[in-house]
Prior knowledge:
Layout: H1 4-8, H2 13-28, E1 36-40, H3 42-53, E2 60-64, E3 73-74, H4 76-85, H5 88-103, H6 105-118, H7 124-137, H8 140-145, H9 148-167, H10 172-181, H11 189-198, E4 205-206, E5 209-210, H12 214-220, H13 229-234, H14 238-248, E6 250-251, H15 265-284, H16 298-309, E7 314-319, E8 339-344, H17 358-371, H18 377-380, E9 396-397, E10 412-415, E11 418-421
Parallel strand pairs: 1-2, 2-7, 3-6, 7-8
Antiparallel strand pairs: 4-5, 9-10, 10-11
Helix pairs in contact: 2-3, 3-16, 6-7, 6-10, 7-15, 9-11
Amino acid sequence: MSRLWLRAEYLNGQEAADDFHALISAMKKVLKGKWVMNGISKGGATTAIQQALHPEDFNLFMPYAGPLMDGMADTGPMRHTLDVAWSDEMREYMRDLKRYALLTPEVFEIFKDWHSYYRPGYSDEYWKNQFLGNVHMIDCDVHAYTSRADAKKIIDRNKQLIEQLTAKGVDKNELITLLFYYNELKGEEAWKNELSSAAGVKRRSVQGRFVPEKVELERRLPLPSDFSQKMWNRDGSQPYYYQALREHGYYGPDFRMLLTEDDEQEAAEEMNRIWAKRTKNYIVSSSSYLRTVEYDPTLRQKTWEATLHNKAPMIYIYGQDDYWTGSGVPDDMVNGTETFKYILSAQNHNVKITNATAAERTELWNKVDLMLKIVPTDIEEVTTDTCVDASHPRAIYNLRGQRVASPRSGEMYIVDGMKRVW
């Protein structure tokens, strides 16, 4: 039973949307009123797909941070981050760090030796696949889930540690490799301690080099080849992998963005070739069936086309600093009558209306009311002549028309006869 979906080739966007439509149709017979569908990340993409295939299901669709990739390996997220989310200083530092790792053979050799110490027998190309993936992924957590201010602190702290330890005589290539070995750019104590230990006693040695502990290797970088076929068959992520390959796409770097000089183009093209091969092999693990799946852009194209011509109200919400905003709905697919797009300032993949500015929150909630055709006639008749305090010369009411003395941040109230988010 665990592999039935593989044989049936069942899990595609159309089938999933049809199932959800049947469920919603049954529930509507019992639960009356307005229906709103939303979701974040893959749930946001699913919301957009549901609108395209069954617009009658909901009165309003609100996808949050939902990417739909332009191909199996979309470079849009990386371009967005470098061009929009980071300051010039942060951008240049990360480019320099990655360029150094990619163009310094010694860094890759150390990376390969460290892993080979515990996992011998893999080819150079296999380790290069892993290395390029780590170089690409190192900053994803930072720009997807961290504020700009915190991201700058993290990057500055790692930069200082590397500079300080290099000045103490620690090999720079080992420190750079350590960063990409752990595939993590964070200000965590574990990372700080690991850098500090590199300056002290070396726990392991491969050709005289420091080698991190095996337990750290296994925790930080589970390798797809280590999954047995039996484990893979039980893996609950199978549907995601299938959909990512088949319809949702994945994401990938364009190393030409990092290596721009003419004499480096050949190296960049080679890295792109290896990445293109790695992208599919990495996410399919050891499943021979998934290796036969090819990306089909039909669902994505149908979703964007429905977005442009839709009659079901739709509000797309993205975070300005989010990696995935780069693969969000294009501006030319937003018609501005039934479809709207909001990019909330200085937010990331955890984008929320409650974290938006007061002006953004008020605009969004008013738009929701308008699209749901909610007319609060009883609230509009509330009188607001009585003063509450000097800082708020008009009385404040909740949406039930009850007087409020201490409004809470992020909630909606009636002030001077107008709805606003506090």
